[in-house]
């Protein structure tokens, strides 16, 4: 333990390494596996490798004999032991030899340490710019089995050696989303504290539904949600919220909450009990509003798309016009979604003006800040979400701009009780009323899930480790990089910006114009050709594995690149690299 | 790498440990951090601990200097390096000193190795029966901060030393769901292969929506789902499915699929476009059918509860009567859920008879095998799900009976295309049609989520490591233990079974009758007293931390214990322990 106090013999030991001099293999192993904590020294054990199968068997047997007693591995007299990674032959070992198998402890520790070695190498290489972002293969190639990497499942077990190879191959043919040159999604990066948190979460392997089996995590969730509500600016003492499996589900919760608030009878009687309800969201908003509107029984046609301006921001006048139009048709406006950070343009809808309209017509205001919520952590950028404190609910995904590992999405509500009212079904076997503790901490009945993954711990741990100021610095840095990219390509030959003006978020959208198209007048032919440029560059990029950035058509605009920066590992040199790589790959198109 | 070949010098080294004898501190450090792979020896480095803050700072600085070049840590000439755990002072280190910080690699590796040490100790103790299952504290105690464990978040960062302490405390005050005496939920155990898989998943930190960023995981999901469909017995070449965040969401998918199959216009026009649709499920089924029925706009009243027999199995005659009754009222029956393994009793509904009725009335048949699906892996027990091959959809949670880490739940469909049709919204920025690979592998548009956590890898890896036969053995063992428990308490003084006959699943439901109630006639007073017994024993159990088992009232039955066994680490001795512990704690009530 880092905080344990050293014994006075530590310093003596400094100049007296004589105890570290075993003279035979066995003595050496004894030292290596013995408890040397008192000496302040940690020495890993080892076993010689051997190629011969017979010898392998012999070594494993001998290993088993020598380590049958767990005291050889674990120093029982101290609270937490330091485990020593010993060379182990896994070719004759199987899952059944691990815990809970009798004498399985040593093999379990060695197997997990071997896995950790693979993972640490992966982490190290992820941050190493000489490593590729990906080693691209087509689906049929991976399905056929590259270099013996067989994805098929079989009746019989594979050796642990093969399992370790499978782990290496899985990482080898995957995509390094934490690489400083991976710009493909809104969620990038590999935060080390978050990683530690997620490893711990997996090891704790519990479920969020009750305080009974997740006491610490349930409280961490409550405290973190409260902190997030404060940052949003809600002054109510008792708001609500829950972490959900992603922004789409968080948005789904917001619609369910709005419906329950205004038409609680829908819970029991169905949509038939309500008039024709309509929802409003901008044409630039995330597709999950429409998708969950369809799922919840509103129908996608009743999710009305409001026009956006040339920067992708919802136009309040059009919202009001569409509300009036709906009312005139006899429909009942229920809910408006304002987006803080649209997916493609990174646009922030004018929340205050939208809030005015929602107040005027008594509508639920939801702010989808899945992507832009992180900016609330920055004193420099939080003004872009002004008005969010007037929302009834907010979606905020720490797994995007805040760099939390996937996944971590919160739905936050200003009013307490709606989630519970909306979702509770009072399953007696899970939510007993006669427990010995305060059951108001059981969260399960306000979720639409039953079991719920622990998404909070990594986030809580990152917040502890960075502080609010750490998130702020990280977010400011990403936004500065976006400015840097914008300034770099704004007037650069061969680049054309999709939007006028500096970026508000880290989204920078642009076309690369290959030399062959540069002189061409803006005709349909040029547009068609330009439409094919980004996919071609992207394909070349993936095949060379050097970097990744997304592209898409949008509205009436042909395919363009959408650069987003959420990885604190990215630097100006990576931005330079991306620009030059696009030029290199697009030169001949 | 386990498969790398050793050099011939390895064996020579066996009897020649002379190179391991450094004579001064610095020389020793040199050996410890040098690249000794060639010698086949791994020795961890070390730093002396020191209590003085000044000295700490000095040591860290010196450590930084000596390790500025990453070559000291990492042997660059080999593909994968073995990392050496060195004693490191984390009290002056912060998250900002880790990668991507310049020279952050060494600290990153040492920090993660320290975390791994904490986790390995936790794993070891989880399987150690002398360790408590939990160290119970009330919410207010944890919120007040026990022994300095402060859950509140602050503006400023904490040192990595404090972060490590926070990790230890988080585990200390949690519940060991993998402990062989934790019987509290349907998901128990801590599978080592699954754990390795989940650590890797966290490290890969990607998202399931496209092949582009999760090529290997997307294919593993496809292959595993196909295998599961084969085991269900569907003969169609092209079924469908997806892993979802838990059984409740999987059940939600089944209802959405049924609705889309029969009333596709609801997607665009809402529930108003359909007649009054009704769903059927047994009174013993999981509450998520009702909950998601409410969420999707059917209304909980339109989820009609069918009677169960005394064992908790749906009564087909009552199903048919309720269908006819609904039709007579002008409602339109849409969907029947049959449960394979109910939550409390572990009952299997008679699927074949239910399938006959569904065929007769042209209804969608869903089988909720979240809990019982694992039995399909056992040739001895799979007959309990006979008829499942006639279902249109199946929920199957490998995180329950198969011991996969949380969470891992699959919704499987016999017919391909429904999920896609039901959920797709064609977001151009995510699901581009002009990619260079076969985009039919992109799964995002059939999900109700946008981002989707990688739940497949741990399961795939476990299947590889155990084979189908390994799962079979593990499941058979759990069912044998349930039989053992049943035989043990069936005629035991002070125990009364809730159900007649041997258990079908691992659920064993019973009352413990304290000596004070044993002679008492079955009066209302006795029932009231008995109702309070299980909660009291449970509270004492949690406070002593020795074991955990669930209880609940059910229908007209007062609180009883529901024992479930899904942890392959449990043995007969643990069952004996539980029974004796209940007797010990309940003796005086």
TrEMBL record, chains A, B:
SUPFAM superfamilies: PLP-dependent transferases (SSF53383). Pfam families: Pyridoxal_deC (PF00282). PROSITE patterns: DDC_GAD_HDC_YDC. GO terms for cellular component: cytoplasm; presynaptic active zone. GO terms for molecular function: glutamate decarboxylase activity; pyridoxal phosphate binding. Catalyzes the synthesis of the inhibitory neurotransmitter gamma-aminobutyric acid (GABA) with pyridoxal 5'-phosphate as cofactor. Homodimer. Keywords: Decarboxylase, Lyase, Neurotransmitter biosynthesis, Phosphoprotein, Pyridoxal phosphate. It catalyses: L-glutamate + H(+) = 4-aminobutanoate + CO2. The modification N6-(pyridoxal phosphate)lysine is found at residue 400. GO terms for biological process: gamma-aminobutyric acid biosynthetic process. It comes from the Eukaryota. Belongs to the group II decarboxylase family. InterPro entries: PyrdxlP-dep_de-COase (IPR002129), PyrdxlP-dep_Trfase (IPR015424), PyrdxlP-dep_Trfase_major (IPR015421), Pyridoxal-P_BS (IPR021115). Its EC number is 4.1.1.15. Its cofactor is pyridoxal 5'-phosphate. CDD domains: DOPA_deC_like. This is Glutamate decarboxylase 1. It comes from Xenopus laevis. Gene3D superfamilies: 3.90.1150.170, Type I PLP-dependent aspartate aminotransferase-like (Major domain). The gene is gad1.S.
């Amino acid at each position: 333990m880092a905080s344990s106090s050293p014994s006075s013999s530590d310093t003596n030991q400094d100049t007296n390494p004589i105890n570290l001099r075993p003279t035979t293999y066995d003595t050496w192993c004894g030292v290596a596996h013995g408890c040397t904590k008192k000496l302040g020294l940690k020495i890993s054990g080892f076993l010689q490798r051997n190629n011969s199968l017979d010898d392998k068997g012999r070594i494993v047997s001998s290993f088993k004999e020598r380590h049958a007693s767990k005291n050889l591995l674990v120093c029982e007299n101290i609270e937490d032991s330091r485990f020593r990674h010993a060379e182990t032959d896994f070719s004759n070992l199987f899952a059944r030899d691990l815990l809970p198998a009798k004498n399985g402890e040593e093999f379990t520790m060695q197997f997990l340490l071997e896995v950790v070695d693979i993972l640490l190498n992966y982490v190290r290489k992820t941050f190493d710019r000489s490593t590729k972002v990906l080693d691209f293969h087509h689906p049929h190639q991976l399905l056929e089995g590259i270099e013996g990497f067989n994805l098929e499942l079989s009746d019989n077990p594979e050796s642990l050696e093969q399992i370790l190879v499978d782990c290496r191959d899985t990482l080898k043919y995957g995509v390094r989303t934490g690489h400083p040159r991976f710009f493909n999604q809104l969620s990038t990066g590999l935060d080390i504290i978050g990683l530690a948190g997620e490893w711990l979460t997996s090891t704790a392997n519990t479920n969020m539904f009750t305080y009974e089996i997740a006491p610490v995590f349930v409280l961490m969730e409550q405290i973190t949600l409260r902190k997030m509500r404060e940052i949003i600016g809600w002054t109510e003492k008792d708001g609500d919220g829950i972490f959900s499996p992603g922004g789409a589900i968080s948005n789904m919760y917001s619609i369910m909450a709005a419906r329950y608030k205004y038409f609680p009878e829908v819970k029991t009687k169905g949509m038939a009990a309500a008039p024709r309800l309509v929802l409003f969201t901008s044409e630039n908003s995330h597709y999950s509003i429409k998708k969950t509107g369809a799922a919840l029984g509103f129908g996608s046609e009743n999710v009305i798309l409001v026009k956006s301006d040339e920067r992708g921001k919802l136009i309040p006048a059009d919202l009001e016009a569409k509300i009036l139009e709906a009312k005139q048709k006899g429909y009942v406006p229920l809910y408006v979604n304002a987006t803080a950070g649209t997916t493609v343009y990174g646009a922030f809808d004018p929340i205050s003006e939208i809030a005015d309209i929602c107040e005027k017509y008594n509508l639920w205001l939801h702010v989808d800040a899945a992507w832009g919520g992180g900016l609330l952590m920055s004193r420099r950028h939080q003004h872009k979400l002004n008005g969010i404190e007037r929302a009834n609910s907010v979606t905020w995904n720490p797994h995007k701009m805040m760099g939390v590992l996937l996944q971590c999405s919160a739905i936050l509500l200003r009013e307490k009780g709606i989630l519970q009212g909306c979702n509770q079904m009072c399953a007696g076997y899970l939510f007993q009323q006669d427990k010995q503790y305060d059951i108001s901490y059981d969260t399960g009945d306000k979720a639409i899930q039953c079991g719920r993954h622990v998404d909070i711990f990594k986030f809580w741990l990152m917040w502890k480790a960075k502080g609010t100021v750490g998130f702020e610095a990280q977010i400011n840095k990403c936004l500065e990089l976006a400015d840097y990219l914008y300034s770099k390509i704004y007037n650069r030959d061969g680049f054309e910006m999709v939007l006028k003006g500096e970026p508000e978020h880290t989204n920078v959208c642009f076309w690369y114009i290959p030399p062959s198209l540069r002189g061409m007048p803006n005709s349909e032919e040029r547009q068609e050709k330009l439409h094919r440029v980004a996919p071609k560059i992207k394909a070349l990029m993936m095949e060379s594995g050097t970097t990744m950035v997304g592209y898409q058509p949008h509205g009436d605009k042909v395919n363009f690149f959408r650069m987003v920066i959420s990885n604190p590992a990215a630097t100006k040199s990576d931005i330079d690299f991306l620009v030059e790589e696009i030029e290199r790959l697009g030169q001949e198109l």
